[in-house]
Amino acid sequence: MFDHFTRHPQSVDETYLEHMGVASSFGFRMIGAGIRLPDPWPFCPSPV
User: pTM to 2 decimals?
Assistant: First the structure.
């Protein structure tokens, strides 16, 4: 069963914990990109 969780990290030459850190970092960046402040466009003058 544990082999299932270590096969992919080994294929990219990482340990399980290294891969978990890289994947978490990428995942948190993706979540951060999706959560943002409301668009200020309606409150800003249009550029001329």
Answer: 0.58
